[in-house]
Amino acid sequence: MIMRIALIGYGKMGKAIEAIALQRGHEVVLRVGIENLEDFTPENLETADVAIEFTGPESAFENIKKCMESGVSVVSGSTGWLARYNEAVNLCKENQTGFLYASNFSLGVNLFFALNTYLAKLMAPYPNYAPSITEIHHTAKLDAPSGTAITLAEQMLAELKQKKGWVNIAGENPDQLFIESKRIDPAPGTHTIRYQSPIDTITIEHEAHSREGFALGAVVAAEFLYGKKGVYTMKEVLGLGK
Q1: Region 24-40: what's the mean pLDDT?
Q2: Which residues are catalytic?
Q3: In the predicted model, is pLDDT for residue 143 greater than 80?
Q4: Could you tell me which residue, 242 or 29, shows the higher pLDDT?
Q5: Residue 69 has pLDDT above 70, yes or no
Q6: How would residue 66 be classed by pLDDT, with cut points 50, 70 and 90?
Q7: What fold does the segment set 107-207 form as a domain?
């Protein structure tokens, strides 16, 4: 199988995705960055089998919309736009395309998600352990907390009934799960889950060493989505269930 890929977002991540895609025998037929937005047209999109979209929170939804309205399935890794996620799902159905969003495409992170859910279930009966999340990314990352941190928080909140939501400001409300965001160069991404009691601390952590893991996951997701219609997640890509 050889896919024709449109890269929407041609920064460091887009170029890492391109390198992996070419290594796996695929063809990149369209590259759209801030310097050539005029090439982001329905005519050019229609030459692609699937679009891989990694841009910013302010443009992601409109990019996804344009791809779907051109009949092109979309793999999106942009974060900070999820207030419009349901609109994207409806567009996918209306245009009979495929759509796969993930806050993080790394295989290791998706296994970390499964571990996080399991640990939260174990910790739920023990409210004396105070949960928290710390995420560290490079200074060019525009959104805080990261999409990955929000996914981790939502998984924890589903199990830890003593917490009513999450906050990004320390000490704001003890009923809220605190997510600490740090921006330090160079830092592809570190996420730490901590349960702290007066007598001990339990910690799990995922640390990314480069962008290659994210890029590979995005290409594998596109390979999974190729020829499909409907909405999918990385759980289905990796065989981890719904």
Answers
A1: 96
A2: 137, 141
A3: no
A4: 29
A5: yes
A6: very high
A7: Dihydrodipicolinate Reductase; domain 2 (3.30.360)
Architecture of domain 4-105+211-237: 3-Layer(aba) Sandwich (3.40)
d(CA 201, CA 158) in angstroms, rounded, equals: 21
Closest by alpha carbon to 180, among 196, 193, 161?
193
- The answer, as to whether pTM is greater than 0.85, is no
The answer to whether residues 95 and 68 touch, using CB atoms and an 8 Å cutoff, is yes
In this prediction, residue 144 carries a pLDDT of 81
